[in-house]
Write a structure and sequence with these properties.
Elements (H helix, E strand, L loop, with lengths): L14 E2 L6 E2 L17 E2 L15 E10 L3 E8 L5 E5 L11 H8 L5
Antiparallel strand pairs: 1-2, 3-4, 4-5, 5-6
Length: 113
């Protein structure tokens, strides 16, 4: 097993959502923005959180929501290209562009996919 790489510096960048086209601002809390705050979609760009080392690049579709005692709400994503499932912390407390609460609630009320 290779050592875990986690590189936050230089990866918290603005981007256009590949799913809905929303202009997404970087997070303001020192973490890394990794999904669209409007539609909750992401891109498969990491092997480990923040490393930007994946060659896949597929759209990560939000398929569920989980509650974590330490991290709060976690959005479950599945890559449309390779099928990888991953979890991203919801950014509900970002002062500039928080995650869309209604989208998160709608996602949580879906049945298992």
């Amino acid at each position: 097993m290779s050592p875990r790489r986690f590189t936050v510096q230089g990866t918290n960048n603005a981007f256009l959502c590949a799913h809905c086209g929303t202009a997404v601002s970087p997070l303001q809390n020192g973490s890394v923005r990794n999904h669209c705050p409007e539609c909750l979609h992401s891109l498969h760009v990491d092997v480990f959180p923040g490393d930007r080392a994946s060659d896949c690049g597929g759209v990560m579709e939000p398929v569920g929501v989980e509650s974590s005692g330490k991290k709060g709400w976690m959005i479950v994503h599945r890559c449309r290209s390779c099928g990888l499932t991953g979890r991203n912390k919801a950014a509900l407390d970002d002062p500039v562009q928080p995650d869309n609460w209604d989208a998160l609630v709608a996602l949580s009320s879906r049945g298992p996919s």
